[in-house]
Design a protein that fits this description.
This protein has helices at residues 3-22, 25-46, 52-99. The protein is mainly alpha-helical. It has one domain (3-99). Helix 1 runs antiparallel to helix 2 and helix 1 (3-22) runs parallel beside helix 3. The protein is rod-shaped and about 75 Å long. It starts with a helix and ends with a helix.
Length: 100
């Protein structure tokens, strides 16, 4: 593949990050699948002379997107836990009211 393909891979990673940031999980998943296919093609095409620095930069970017995804997951998990605590408290309050 060419330098344009490297730029396309970097652009796709940036788009995945933007989709994660905006909460568009479906778009992020679709883009991740396309990115994976394109990356595998890039590696197959450039092997055995794959440009190591390009691969390192793509890995760095990929790891940044994964960290972003984990942070988003943790944030959603905290929201769900808070919601569950609120529901539990509301049910306990309702039960206490009924007992009176």
């Amino acid at each position: 593949m060419t330098e344009a393909s490297q730029a396309a891979l970097e652009s796709e990673l940036a788009a995945i990050g933007a989709a994660v940031e905006s909460g568009d999980v479906e778009d992020a998943a679709e883009r991740m699948a396309r990115y994976d296919t394109a990356l595998r093609g890039y590696i197959e095409t450039t092997t055995p002379h794959a440009p190591v620095e390009v691969l390192r930069e793509l890995l760095r970017m990929q790891n940044a997107v994964l960290l972003q995804m984990r942070e988003r997951q943790a944030s959603i998990g905290e929201i769900l836990r808070q919601s569950q605590r609120q529901a539990t408290a509301a049910n306990a309050y309702s039960a206490a009211e009924s007992a009176l």
